[in-house]
Amino acid sequence: MKSKLPRIVETPKHFYIDSVDLSGAISDKTGTKIKPLENGKVMVTKTFIAKSYECLDEQDFYDFSKPKLD
To answer: Domain boundaries in the chain?
Structure first.
C-alpha cells in the first residue's frame, strides 16, 4: 500500500502540511530546503527551533484536554 504524500504550503506566517498549520515553525525561509525529485515531487527539509524534543515509543502520550503550560 502506497502512503499518500502530503501537500506542503509555506507562507510568511504559516507552514501547512496538508491541513495542519505549524505556524510556530515559521522563523525565516532559511530553515526550509527544497530539492526537486523526479516525477515533479519535491523533498522538503524544514528546520524547527523548539523548547524541547521527545521521541516516544507509545502512541497516546498526551492528554489534549489537560495541556502542559510550563
So the answer is: 1-70
